[in-house]
Amino acid sequence: MPGKKISTKEYIRRYVFMFIGSILAAVGLEVFLVPNQIIDGGVIGISIMASHLTSWPLGLFIFLLNFPFIYLGYMQIGKNFAISTLFALTSLSIWVSVLLPIPGFTNDVFLAAIFGGIILGIGVGLIIRYGGSLDGTEIVAIILDKRTGFSVGEIVMFFNIFIIGSAGLVFSWDKAMYSLIAYFVAYKLIDITIEGLDESKGVMIVSDHPHEIAEVLMARLGRGVTILHGQGAYTGESKQVLYSVITRLEIAKLKTIIQEIDENAFVTINEVHDVMGGKVKKRAIH
């Protein structure tokens, strides 16, 4: 059965949020980072240095240097990704030019690195969350990941260390170190924007009292629980394994519940990067 098509309303919603993300990214760049000669990683960082050296508009470099990667994204990832990325880059380039006459918000380089990184990270995170990208190096990293033994994160980090290190030659080594601060702040805010503050955790519980624990988890945490059937490799005994998705704020309460019922239960807790479908939303508990 073919999957359900995305509605027009959902498409509009995606592009509205990518538009907002491009405005925030432009504010982070033109109001905080660029006036203080702080760069970001990736193609945006190269564009900032190129604009400084040539006095050509930053928006022009952002668009032109990323354009070849849009084609790569179209070939390797898909048409929707390429269209979303083209929209986000065009919007960012326009807003960077619009905000150019506005003076920098602060002359304190450290504050500019922190707040510029925060605003830029939220903007880029919104664009990635809704299907686009602002950085061609990530597309290259996805392609190289398939052909090398390095992960996407390792390849992007290698590119960015080289790019941010170049800021020391173009501006000063102090500015390169501030750029590194801005990069890590933006990197963290991108993660928070994509995944949310309410981080999900996947929990697996092996216990001799599975049904009792499941009932209490549903009653006291309001979470759905799935019972899986397993077997101990050493003993050969049949086991029932509980699986549930909770938030990090509920971990302590989960441990308390399990300890009250079965202090010998075996529990593993893992990161869950995304959740869709299923009955994982918390029910109201009165």
TrEMBL record:
Q: Return the Pfam families for the record.
A: DUF2179, YitT_membrane
Among the entry's GO cellular component annotations, what is one? plasma membrane
Its membrane topology, per UniProt? Multi-pass membrane protein
Q: Which InterPro entries match?
A: DUF2179, N-reg_PII/ATP_PRibTrfase_C, UPF0750_membrane, YitT
Query: Keywords, A to Z?
Result: Cell membrane, Membrane, Transmembrane, Transmembrane helix
User: Source organism's superkingdom?
Assistant: Bacteria
Which N-terminal stretch is annotated as signal sequence?
Answer: none
For this protein, the record's Gene3D superfamilies field holds: 3.30.70.120
Q: Where in the cell is it found?
A: Cell membrane
TM region(s), chain numbering = 12-34, 54-74, 81-103, 109-128, 149-170
Q: Which residues form the DUF2179 domain?
A: 223-277
Asked if the record carries the keyword Membrane, the reply is yes
Cytoplasm listed as a keyword: no
**PANTHER family given for it?**
UPF0750 MEMBRANE PROTEIN YITT-RELATED, UPF0750 MEMBRANE PROTEIN YQFU
Q: What is this protein called?
A: Uncharacterized membrane-anchored protein YitT, contains DUF161 and DUF2179 domains
